[in-house]
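[Discussion] Sanity-checking designs against the backbone

I'm trying to build intuition for which residues belong where. Below is a structure token string of 448 positions. I'd appreciate it if someone posts a full sequence so I can compare it with mine line by line.
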């Protein structure tokens, strides 16, 4: 049997705003044909997918896989496997590693690690600093998905805070500029006041007041204003407040937008009420905010003010997370559980399957010009996820694939299960196991 040629029969595809019953013919690493009742010779692997849903592999536009330099928390090898188990077949990784990915040499070095060890398709964002504009302008825009700027400090201290440099970057790069927006001065003032009151053991309930709505809005509105002034292509990462939604539009298609926005699974799932039980395990930057903010984010996603659904997967060890507020780092592991959480939200009536696929598969591909992925289309790479929508399961520590060995969802009951993942036409994950042979590829971008 030729293992690389497959016929998937009777699948229910969720794709391009439709749900339809079809057969899928996969030859080599691409989708050859989508039609009803495809017949093939006996040397094809035939899979009967009756009762299963198939969606395009998710493209996660924001993950931190910690390699090089922070490999006591995670590495590309372990986290890309966890991603496959969560239906994420492609990831865009962030530059706050050690050393930071702020030179072309470091960026190439990271790519080499991924070429040898990644289990999922990969690409690496380049980090802007106060003094690397020349490097930014020399990047290969067909290989670099975007520039990442921290306009508020988080793990790794990569703050870009020189207004002249910011203006020069915004005015000169053609790349998408993906930004972390939280106003540094507001955070410092709020943190100082909280420390004066509580010392280092600040209650977690204070976190969204320290990393406040105002801090988010001030920073993201300034970034949007600068993008409008300079004509830059801006993508605002992890929007966490209702108020920021007024900065974005939904009256034009994504491809025409110069300013786009991402929302992350933790801001959609958790709210400030969860700090009581989850503590620093749900400490993120930007902070998880109020229930009202969370409801507004769902609404913003469903009405297309928010364009992309992502994880911001950012693992830290349990030991690190178990420290007092001022020492516990922000971030948590998410790639394995984001899709089951979204499918559970679908069962709860919060979002449709078509919308999940649009925001987590199609839109990242469109937004970053990812070549031949993000859709189930003839000629596209066969990155596919097979779902059992009705299967319920509880997240337990023993099933966690993250190197850090914990999940903020432990104990949570999900409805919606990733049964298998196909990567570049090869089975990559099935029956709870990541396959030992990886077909991962570097992503490329369809640009001038
Ligand atoms: O909570 C966060 N953790 N937010 C970020 O932006 C960075 C991330 C990390 O790298 O730990």
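Best answer:
Here's mine. Compare freely.
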């Amino acid at each position: 049997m030729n293992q690389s040629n497959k016929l998937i029969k009777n699948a229910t595809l969720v794709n391009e705003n439709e749900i339809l019953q079809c057969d899928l013919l996969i030859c080599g690493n691409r989708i050859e044909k989508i039609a009803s009742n495809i017949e093939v010779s006996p040397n094809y692997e035939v899979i009967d997918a009756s009762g299963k849903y198939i969606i395009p592999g998710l493209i996660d536009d924001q993950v931190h896989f910690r390699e090089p330099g922070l490999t006591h928390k995670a590495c590309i090898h372990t986290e890309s496997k966890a991603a496959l188990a969560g239906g994420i077949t492609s990831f865009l990784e962030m530059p706050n590693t050690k050393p930071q990915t702020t030179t072309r040499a470091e960026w190439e070095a990271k790519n080499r690690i991924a070429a040898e060890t990644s289990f999922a398709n990969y690409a690496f964002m380049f980090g802007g600093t106060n003094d690397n504009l020349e490097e930014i302008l020399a990047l290969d825009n067909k290989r670099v998905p975007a520039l990442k700027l921290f306009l508020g400090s988080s793990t790794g201290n990569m703050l870009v805070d020189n207004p002249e440099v910011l203006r020069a970057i915004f005015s000169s790069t053609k790349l998408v500029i993906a930004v972390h927006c939280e106003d540094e001065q507001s955070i410092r003032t709020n943190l100082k006041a909280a420390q004066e009151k509580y010392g280092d053991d600040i209650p977690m309930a204070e976190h969204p007041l320290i990393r406040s709505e105002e801090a988010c809005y001030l920073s993201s509105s300034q970034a949007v204003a600068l993008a409008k002034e300079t004509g830059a292509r801006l993508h605002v990462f992890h929007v966490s407040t209702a108020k920021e939604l007024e900065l974005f539009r939904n009256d034009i298609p994504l491809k025409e937008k110069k300013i786009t926005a991402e929302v992350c699974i933790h801001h959609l799932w958790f709210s400030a009420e969860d700090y009581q039980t989850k503590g620093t395990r749900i400490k993120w930057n930007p902070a998880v905010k109020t229930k009202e903010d969370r409801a507004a984010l769902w609404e913003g996603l469903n009405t297309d003010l928010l364009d992309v659904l992502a994880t911001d997967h950012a693992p830290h060890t349990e030991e690190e997370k178990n420290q007092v507020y001022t020492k516990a780092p922000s971030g948590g592991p998410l790639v394995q559980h984001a899709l089951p959480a979204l499918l559970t939200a679908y069962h709860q009536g919060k979002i449709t399957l078509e919308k999940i696929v649009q925001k987590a598969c199609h839109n990242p591909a469109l937004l970053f010009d990812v070549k031949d992925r993000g859709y189930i289309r003839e000629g596209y790479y066969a990155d596919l996820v097979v779902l059992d929508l009705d299967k319920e399961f509880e997240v337990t520590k023993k099933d966690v694939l993250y190197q850090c060995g914990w999940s903020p969802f432990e104990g949570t009951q999900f409805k919606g299960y990733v049964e298998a993942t196909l990567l570049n036409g090869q089975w990559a994950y099935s029956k709870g196991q990541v396959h030992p042979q990886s077909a991962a590829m570097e992503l490329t971008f369809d640009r001038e």
